[in-house]
Amino acid sequence: MSTPLSNVSKSPKIVGIAADHGGFELKQQLVLLLREAGHHVVDFGDHSLQPDDDYPDFVIPLARAVAAGKMNRGIAVCGSGVGACVAANKVAGVRACLIHEGFSAHQGVEDDDLNVICLGGQVVGLAEAWELVKLFLASSFSGEERHRRRLAKVAALELSQAKELP
Q1: Predicted confidence (pLDDT) at residue 7 exceeds the cutoff of 80
Q2: CA distance 117 to 124
Q3: Within-domain flag for 2
């Protein structure tokens, strides 16, 4: 069951956003809509359209800020959204997912405590992206025991891998 947009919370959040050339136009439009909706937006770049830029240069600083609690949520955009999702998930404490439909936009937050939404700037249009972002930002983690248990297993994996690194 999807969350009706009429029930979407309008509480302002600190939202980080990042995109490479493939998501630059969509990012620029989302920044305007987010600010118009009352959110404080931190733009991690790219700040101009650069065909040779690389999504990790923008997505990783965004992901680190989200993991550190400096942002309530993050939005990462590249051409398909796939690369941005891969990069964001390399940062411990980030739970990023490529989202192209409404159910996952809210369910990912409610069940999996999703904190970064990844979008494909060449895949979804502005209207759909904005609806997905609104659902993502309006949703809250349920805190149910089964979801906390699953997330604890993911966090334990992150810790064990960090200890294995040279």
Answers
A1: no
A2: 13
A3: no
The DSSP code sequence of 29-74 is HHHHHHHHTT-EEEE-S--S--TT--THHHHHHHHHHHHTTSSSEE
Share of the chain above pLDDT 90, in %: 85
Q: Is residue 156 domain-resident?
A: yes
Query: What are the tens digits of pLDDT across the range 74-85?
Result: 999 999 999 999
Q: What are phi and psi of 117, to 5 degrees?
A: -100, 135
Residue 149 sits in which domain range? 11-164
- Is residue 38 in a domain? yes
pTM: 0.90
The pLDDT value given to residue 65: 98
Structure token digits, residue 54:
């690389």
CB 71 within 8 A of CB 33: no
Q: Report the CATH number at residue 77.
A: 3.40.1400.10
| CA angle centred on 72, ends 152 and 39, rounded to 5° | 160
